[in-house]
Amino acid sequence: MTMSLRPRILVVDDEPPIRRLLRTGLATQGFDVAEAAGTAEALAALAPGEPGEAREKVDLVVLDLGLPDGNGLDVLAHLRGRGDATPVVILSSRDDEAGKVRAFDGGADDYVTKPFGMNELVARIRTALRHGLAVEGARPVFLVDGLSVDLVRRIVRLDGAEVKLSPKEYDLLRLLVLNAGKVLTHAFLLRKVWGATTDPQQLRVYVRQLRQKIERTPDQPSFIATEVGVGYRLRAPDA
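The structure assignment produced for this chain is given below.
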């Protein structure tokens, strides 16, 4: 994903007032905004261009779930099914945990519920864009607020001091690092690190152990955030 100087956001929502609000609010924050009112329009806007065709690249999608001609998750599934890693921020009036889990398991980068604050949404968008660029660049060293993870040498440091992790603790941290800023569900983490989804308590134990080692105040974590009932999110780098 090569981003332009003004990142291009595709807003997919069937409510004209919401699209108008987002178009105005995002434009004032330095984004170019395209719009789609439904699944068909969204898929057309996101379709790969023909060879030689001049077509503006979408850098991020703000996606409603309740669309008149389908479910927003269908758009997400279509993108991820063809290997498209364009960041997707769900913007929905649905606030149930099961719906959030489906969205994150389907490859969503974030989930914001309506009604929403523009400042919060813009912050989530910027975080998702940074995550997309980090994935594309495959940074060998992850760094945020004194925590560094060298993915090549498998060295973890906090404020310059090396942190000793067990192999499973490192595997868990590495997966969080590779998806920094993105919520990873319990099932996804268990499947990727342990190869099974049968014992969520095991995951909680390892997250607690990891926090004891990399957090300055484990009881008030600043790096690994809990998304209650859904999963965990590692704080993304500031730049």
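Interim note for the steering committee: The two ends are 16 Å apart (CA to CA). The mean pLDDT is 87.
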